[in-house]
Amino acid sequence: MIPLRDDIPSRRTPVVNYIVIALCSLAFMAQQTAPDHGEGIISAFAMVPLRLSDPDAVPVIETQRQVQTPRGIEVVNVRQELGPSPVPPWVTLITCMFLHGGWMHFIGNMWFLYIFGDNVEDRIGHVGFAALYLGTGILAGLSHYITQSSSPVPTIGASGAIAGVMGAYAFLYPHARVLTILPLIIIFTTIVVPAPVFLGIWFAMQVFSGLGSLTNGAVDGVAWWAHAGGFAAGMLLAIAVNRYHIGNEPVLERRF
């Protein structure tokens, strides 16, 4: 399911949300225009679980690449040693949030943040939103670290922090609705889904996929537990915000 928009308008400009989108965009453009297509940036600023476990370790990742040989194109195993990071390993829990692995990764994350971030910022304020975004992003990274503490594979993306925003939205706006694109094989239709249902299905998919990766040992390049951990952290923080009446009351006016 792909969200198009929700039905809760914002009362003020989501400044922090726009700043985050702008920073992610600048970082992604830097990756795309780098001579090595951003591999050096990722090596330096991605969160590598092994570096958190052992800051003196030199992560080595094994990848497969297609190469031209006299017999034609063949797939060979390549061992790549990651270069040193200019920042302490714990700092990469923050820097990794602003990097992305490709256009679909980048656009998908920014779109979800655009849809749900403005209302959360409207509810808890600019400073509160910045704290929630960074805090849930760090907790999401730690959730991934707990399940992959010895992994040398770089972890990047704003997905964990955005999952935190989505978790907060699910609690703060339980009566909101989301206009959603529903792909049915080759046909695409739109439906209006209650926000808790949309976000609950998304969260369940992350948990089940994470459990699958633990049981079958599959490595698919997705930090499922970062998504699930970020969502849970965002909801818990939103509950605390609501309990102590921090921020502004949500708007109940509908868009559609």
TrEMBL record:
Its main location: membrane. Residues 90-241 form the Peptidase S54 rhomboid domain. It is found in: Membrane. It is a multi-pass membrane protein. The keyword Membrane applies. One of its GO terms (molecular function) is serine-type endopeptidase activity. Keywords: Hydrolase, Membrane, Transmembrane, Transmembrane helix. It comes from the Bacteria. Belongs to the peptidase S54 family. This is Peptidase S54 rhomboid domain-containing protein. It comes from Aporhodopirellula rubra.
